[in-house]
Design brief:
The complex is a heterotrimer. By secondary structure, chain A is α+β, with helices and mostly antiparallel strands. Chain A contains 14 helices and 13 strands. In chain A, the strands form 3 sheets. In chain A, strands 4, 5, 6, 7, 8, 9 and 10 form a 7-stranded mixed β-sheet that branches. Chain A has a 4-stranded antiparallel β-sheet with strand order 3-12-1-13, with helices on both faces. In chain B, strand 15 and strand 16 form a beta hairpin. In chain B, helix 2 runs antiparallel to helix 11, helix 8 packs parallel to helix 11 and helix 10 packs antiparallel against helix 11. Chain B starts with a helix and ends with a helix. By secondary structure, chain C is an alpha/beta fold. Chain C has a domain of 159 residues: 3-Layer(aba) Sandwich (Rossmann fold), CATH 3.40.50.300. Chain C is built from 7 helices and 10 strands. Chain C has a 6-stranded mixed β-sheet. Chain C has a 4-stranded antiparallel β-sheet with strand order 2-1-4-5. The chains are: A alpha+beta, B alpha+beta, C alpha/beta. At the A-B interface, helix 2, helix 9 and helix 10 of A face helix 2, strand 5, strand 6, helix 8 and strand 15 of B.
């Protein structure tokens, strides 16, 4: 640790160069942090998906509806704990750019199926007592600045009301928070009974089923059993684990993970060039100094350690600054203003960032460090 | 004036001769800039590709009619009777078969993507005869057109490429039925190439739609006929519709995706650009400091500061230009024409497109590189020019 | 001229050759050289450029290895030590003074002097104390916090000497210590070296061009074409 002073002092030799290199490294890690948060936003749904939950939908197309009567049949299948249905309401709040999902569901079933939604008992009761009431996630509430008691009008494109109108009015009587960081708190739940009695068409038809299996290891078997039950009927089903279903959607948007990985590789490659180059210059210009250190009695390994130490110090400062700034930027919120259900930087990825700092410092510094190690005192002093 | 130019020339000569000493850091800066430009052009080419697909779709004189309040075909609903009224509106072009108004049904069907094997919502369009005429550049490229009334489908080139099981001879499963693929069509790079087409009369019962459609695509007599067409329909008490130019419609559909990608792409490019600026500054400061004595000697001999600044900035600009060219070239080679699919948020259906590395984008990339080079060279140049000569001569 | 294996000899160089390769050229700098240096001597090595005096100094100080022959310091065959052991030996037994001082520009005078002590197991306070003592001996206590660029040539060299003696080494090796200094500063340095030799009994080997500097030594040898003699060769 006594060498720390020596290492940092050496970096002060060319303050501008050191500073610029640190800034370059910082930028790379800002990108790393921010892009990781973006990638996480796409992956989040998949991660928090219940391992014991399946999604049952119409086999031909997601926009086709299933009979509500399927629920009883599904629940009678071996291995199924509980099944509940939801439907795509697809309405618009004020204007199309304010897009968010609204879904009718049976309230008691929701609480049973999605324990990750945390609601106060008071509000639960309020929802159960108000037919036109809705349960809204905290994220969505914050986005539009709603409060409990607000009346929220939604323009329904698909579901015309029995009275001919298209504007549905809902009362915000309950708000839910997510149990985990990655839980989606941007949803808008309508009471199914209110929905079914008010809609002019499609009575008794629902969008899809969420099924909880008693044994997650048997999920695949249960899924197959459900599909077999409805095979060759007028409405065939396709059942898959919730995580796979969400992943499928993410895949449709694009191979985000691959794109981000490619960008990050390009970025880090560039940074390695910059940092490596700086370290190379540092050694080249200090041949004499390094030779003197060896003359005084520093071993070859000692000098190698010194150069590597400088590389680490440089990369560490830049990397920590970068990760810190990235965290700050991420905490500013969703850059797409609502499209991402969650937006945060997971601790595990920060850890990965630190690991990358170490790796990069090593790669950038190892060649110059080896050169320093091999330096012959007599030759170097002569120069 | 001439003296000045020759000074710039001499100083620059010195720079170029000493370049080999600094090849390491010059290469680093150059590759850094190349990387930034490549990424920027690559990411933005996605947005360009989506936009191009959207824009290819709409002709000057085409219009689309949806139900009032609907933002996309998916959300719209028009009765069969409505579509008949619409097709008789003034302004619609006609051919020997009748008015060029095409009532269409738009749904999606689950098909696996070739790349991941997971399902995508592939657009499935129920059409009538005028549909082909109303689409720009529609033509069959493989197989044949489907026969009306039969369970046959044709697929767009984009759809065939991105989704599994759409070759001629295969069938798509619709409930209990199997609908064979009999042909592949092309539409000038337009949106329809992401779709599967079938006779509307066959699709309606399969999706239980009765006699309803979702949109009417119409080809008008001329660009100016639009107003007349629109007024006639919106003032008709029997209808409750929304009339747009097709180009407007596609604009509205692509806005979200385009803005999203462009926004994110720009943020990434700016941040990377910042990193590249630091890298370029680093290189140029090193370049300058290694020639401090040289530059000072020249100035002591009578060369002016101006030429020194110009020489350093030119070197940086040259480096940046080379880097930008390499980056843009790489992006073009790697990405242009690369086919992919993404999700159309408005209709929750897949759209296939090709990454579009167009000239405008390449130019943007190179300009961006030059800006980086300018900043990277300016500060070191000014420092070199302002350093007191005596001090510089002493510096080892 | 040479004494055969007398026990008071600190340095014993015998049959030493040093060959350098410059591309395809082979240069014999030293050939079959013998030298004995008794403990407490202040030896001046003189000779024309390229005569190999710095090379000889490097060999004695363990900064380089002979192509042939043996180098013995304090009874230890240093030419047989591994690189790592040699580094350790140098840290403890050799103090180096250079023509161009070779101080670390990023460290203060005091930190520069402390540098060799980093290689020991001494505590931080111990190191500071010893550095302070060394600086005091060379008369630079009042400039301890200054950086090399703030010191005159003479002050920098004195710092260099302080660094060289801070570990209390067996040998002090000086390569043209006054080469970059004016007459007055140079004399001050030579006074210091003489004092270290006479009052503290330090064995000093000094390579120099300057006859006046050599006059301060207890013995002067001339090196020419790889051979030692007591007389200068014109």
């Amino acid at each position: 640790m006594k060498y720390l002073y020596l290492i940092f002092s050496s970096l002060k030799r060319k303050k501008l160069r050191t500073g610029l290199t640190i800034l370059s490294i910082m930028v790379a890690f800002i990108l790393f942090g921010y892009l990781t948060a973006i990638r996480q936003a796409f992956d989040a749904g998949v991660e928090v998906a219940g391992a014991d939950r399946l999604i049952v939908r119409h086999k031909v197309s997601i926009i086709q509806l299933l009979p509500q009567s399927y629920e009883a049949k599904i629940e009678s299948i071996d291995g199924v704990d509980n099944a509940t249905h939801s439907t795509w309401f697809g309405g618009i709040y004020q204007q199309p750019t304010n897009f968010f999902a609204q879904m009718p569901i049976v309230p008691e079933e929701l609480f049973d199926m999605f324990p990750e939604f945390i609601v106060s008992d008071e509000q639960k009761a309020a929802w159960l007592n108000t037919r036109s009431g809705v349960l809204v996630g905290r994220g969505l509430v914050d986005r539009f600045g709603w409060k409990l008691g607000d009346r929220i009008p939604i323009n329904a494109n698909i579901w015309r009301k029995k009275d001919g109108g298209r504007t549905w009015e809902f009362d915000l009587v309950a708000i839910y928070d997510g149990a985990e960081k990655g839980t989606d708190t941007s949803q808008f739940w309508i009471r199914y009974d209110f929905f079914d009695e008010t809609r002019a068409i499609g009575a008794g038809l629902v969008g899809w089923y969420t099924v909880r299996v008693s044994d997650p290891d048997k999920a695949a078997e249960v899924a197959a059993a459900i599909d077999a039950e409805f095979a060759n009927s007028a409405q065939e089903t396709k059942t898959e684990p919730e995580g796979a279903f969400i992943q499928g959607f993410a895949n449709q948007i694009g191979n985000i993970g691959f794109i981000i990985m490619s960008i990050m590789s390009a970025v880090f490659f560039t940074i390695l060039l910059v940092a490596g180059n700086t370290m190379a210059y540092t050694v080249r210009e200090r041949t004499n100094e390094l030779a003197v250190l060896k003359a005084i009695g520093f071993t070859d390994l000692g000098v190698l350690g010194l150069v590597l130490g400088e590389s680490f110090a440089l990369t560490f400062v830049g990397g920590v600054l970068g990760l810190g700034l990235a965290s700050m930027l991420v905490s500013l919120g969703d850059p797409t203003n609502g499209s991402f259900p969650v937006f945060y930087l997971p601790g595990s990825e920060l850890l990965l960032g630190f690991l990358l700092i170490v790796v990069m410092a090593f790669i950038a510094g190892i060649v110059p460090a080896l050169q320093a190690q091999k330096l012959q005192i007599a030759d170097a002093l002569r120069r | 004036m001439f003296n000045w130019i020759s000074q710039v020339f001499s100083v620059t000569q010195f720079s170029i001769r000493s370049l080999p000493q600094r090849k390491g850091s010059s290469a680093a800066a150059l590759l850094g800039i190349a990387g930034v430009v490549a990424v920027m052009v690559g990411v933005l080419s996605i947005a360009q590709g989506v936009l191009k697909t959207m824009q290819s779709s709409a002709g000057e004189s085409s219009a689309i009619v949806l139900r009032s309040g609907a933002d996309s075909e998916m959300m719209s609903g028009l009765g069969g009777e409505d579509t008949r009224i619409i097709s008789e509106a003034p302004g619609i072009a006609r051919n020997e078969s009748g008015p060029l108004a095409s009532p269409e049904l738009f749904v999606v069907i689950n098909l696996p993507m070739r790349s991941t094997g997971t399902d995508a919502n592939v657009p499935l369009r129920g059409v009538q005869a005028p549909a082909m005429a109303v689409r720009e550049g529609f033509r069959m490229v493989e197989g044949r057109m489907f026969e009306w009334g039969l369970n046959e489908v044709i697929v767009g080139t984009g759809a065939k490429q991105q989704f599994a099981g759409l070759e001629i001879g295969s069938s798509i499963e619709v409930g209990q039925e199997r609908w064979p693929v009999v042909g592949v069509f092309d539409a000038d790079g337009g949106l329809s190439e992401s779709e599967i087409w079938v006779d509307a009369a066959v699709l309606q019962p399969a999706y239980r739609r009765g006699n309803s459609y979702q949109a009417v695509y119409a080809e008008l007599n001329s660009r100016d006929a639009f107003d007349q067409f629109k007024d006639a329909l919106t003032s008709d008490p029997r209808l409750n519709v929304k009339v747009m130019r097709q180009s407007e419609y596609y604009d509205s559909q692509s806005t979200t995706v385009y803005n999203l990608i462009t926004g994110l792409g720009t943020i990434i490019a700016v941040i990377m650009g910042l990193g590249a600026v630091f890298g370029a500054l680093n290189t140029m400061y090193t370049a300058v400091s290694s020639r401090t004595r040289e530059i000072a000697t020249l100035r002591a001999l009578g060369f002016r500061s101006g030429p020194v600044v110009i020489s350093v900035v030119s070197e940086s600009l040259l480096l940046a230009f080379a880097g930008g060219l390499i980056g843009a070239g790489l992006a073009w080679l790697a990405f242009d024409g690369y086919r992919a699919a993404t999700l159309n948020w408005a209709s929750f259906s897949a759209i296939t497109f090709a990454f579009d590395v167009n000239i405008a984008l390449l130019a943007k990339g190179i300009i961006f590189a030059m800006i980086i080079g300018l900043i990277g060279g300016l500060f070191p140049a000014i420092r070199a020019a302002r350093q007191p000569v005596a001090q510089a001569l002493r510096e080892l | 001229m040479t004494d055969n294996g007398s026990p008071s000899c600190l340095v014993n160089v015998s049959g030493v050759d040093k060959v350098f390769k410059r591309g395809s050229e082979v240069i014999h700098v030293l050939g079959g050289l013998d030298l004995e240096i008794p403990d407490g001597e202040f030896l001046a090595l003189m000779g024309p450029s390229g005569s190999g005096k710095s090379t000889l100094l490097n060999l004695i100080g363990g900064l380089d290895r002979p192509s042939e022959g043996k180098v013995e310091v304090g009874g230890l065959r240093i030419d047989k030590l591994s690189d790592r052991k040699l580094a350790g030996w140098r840290a403890r037994h050799v103090g180096l003074v250079f023509q161009f001082y070779n101080l670390m520009p990023v460290l203060s005078a005091q930190r520069n002097v402390e540098l060799p002590l980093l290689l020991t197991k001494l505590s931080k306070s111990e190191r500071k104390k010893r550095a302070a003592i060394a600086l005091d001996i060379v008369g630079l206590s009042h400039r301890a916090g200054h950086f090399p660029r703030q010191l005159s040539g003479g002050e920098q060299q004195r710092t260099g000497i302080a660094r060289a003696i801070v570990t209390d080494p067996t040998l002090l090796l000086c390569d043209e210590p006054t080469g970059d200094l004016d007459r007055k500063s140079g004399d001050e340095i030579l006074d210091l070296l003489q004092a270290l030799n006479k009052e503290q009994g330090k064995t000093i080997i000094m390579v120099t061009h300057d006859v006046h500097a050599a006059d301060r030594a207890t013995r002067t040898l001339h090196l020419n074409k790889g051979q030692l003699s007591t007389e200068a060769v014109d």
